[in-house]
Specification:
By secondary structure, this protein is of the alpha/beta class. The protein has ten helices and 13 strands. The longest helix is centred in the first third of the chain and has 22 residues. It comes from Candidatus Methanocrinis alkalitolerans. Catalyzes the conversion of GDP-D-mannose to GDP-4-dehydro-6-deoxy-D-mannose. Its cofactor is NADP(+).
């Protein structure tokens, strides 16, 4: 019997890779999309004909109720969020409403209309914040350092609460930073690779960045969506850290990105206070031992492969857009 899955945030980076994975496995895929004057379907345009789109919004309970009733999914993946940390300081109430309370709304819709569905919540390594230990695992205390991270902590505990209170199959995937050529241009990794491509093509001379010393555990998004799926194939629900186990500084990412096209980053990168966080998170590095043991999952793509992949894609895009 064909399984059905409902993905919120299907037009985003993770949603697009997850939709590809589920379609390849024979799922009927429903995607929740917000009504926009100009919908951004670029990441899923190649598979759009195979997806059933439902209009809805994490701030609107009635639309979520209708979406869940319509799809009657076996699995629900909640990937939608106001997901950019920097924006969360400028729009903290919106971030709390979407990224935090939105989890309660979608869980409540599932509880009322398809309680047997398995639920995945996209939690974040940002919840660890000002970390007390490195690496971080499922038992590490949360110390969020941004409105985004605080909202994600709310969503995490809401997911746990519905699991414990109503006996629902609810999982948190605590994903560390995961990137790809489909990453939004506002995120630092994609900002770097896009900047490198522009400078390499002669369309720009400098790249302005904030804290180069921040360290993150960077993996490939296409690897990570498989971990999401594996969580919902287990006999019992649980929470899992998904990470590579390595951390690299923004400076390392920059150096590798520029060197991949034969450039010295020091000739082009400028520090800009505008891009510094009000409260910095120095280092995030995950321990995914539990995911490896219980799910049989491990990251396949190295840091070097990821950087080269992203730079290569942006260089190709620059050639396609500008003819050089």
């Amino acid at each position: 019997m064909t399984k059905a899955a409902l993905i919120t945030g299907i037009t985003g980076q993770d949603g697009s890779y997850l939709a590809e994975l589920l379609l390849a496995k024979g799922y009927e895929v429903y995607g929740l999309v917000r009504r926009l004057s100009t919908p951004n379907m670029s990441r899923i345009s190649h598979i759009a004909d195979n997806i059933i789109f439902l209009e809805g919004d994490l701030t609107d309970q009635s639309s979520l109720n209708v979406a869940v009733q319509t799809a009657q999914p076996d699995e629900v993946y909640n990937l939608a969020a106001q997901s950019f940390v920097a924006t969360s300081w400028n729009q903290p109430v919106l971030t709390g409403n979407v990224t935090g309370l939105g989890v309660t709304r979608i869980l409540d819709a599932v509880k009322h209309f398809c309680r047997d569905a398995k639920f995945y919540q996209a939690s974040s390594s940002e919840m660890f914040g000002n970390v007390e230990e490195v690496p971080q695992n499922e038992d590490t205390r949360f110390c969020p350092r941004s409105p985004y991270a605080i909202a994600k902590v709310y969503g995490y505990y809401t997911t746990v609460n519905y699991r414990e209170s109503y006996g629902m199959f609810c999982c948190n995937g605590i994903l560390f930073n995961h990137e790809s050529p489909r990453r939004g241009i506002e995120f630092v990794t994609r900002k770097i690779t896009d900047g490198v491509a522009r400078i390499h093509a002669g369309h720009s001379k400098e790249l302005r960045l904030g804290n180069l010393d921040a360290k993150r555990d960077w993996g490939y998004a296409a690897d990570y969506v498989e971990a999401m799926w594996r969580m919902l194939q287990q006999d019992a629900p649980d929470d899992y850290v998904v990470a590579t186990g390595e951390s690299h500084s923004v400076r390392e990412f920059v150096e590798m990105a520029f060197s991949s096209v034969g450039l010295d980053w020091r000739d082009h990168v400028k520090m800009d206070e505008r891009f510094m966080r009000p409260a910095e998170v120095p280092e995030l590095r995950g321990d995914a031992s539990k995911a490896k043991e219980a799910l049989g999952w491990a990251a396949k793509t190295s840091f070097e492969e990821l950087v080269e992949m992203m730079v290569g894609a942006d260089v190709e895009r620059m050639v396609a857009d500008h003819g050089r």
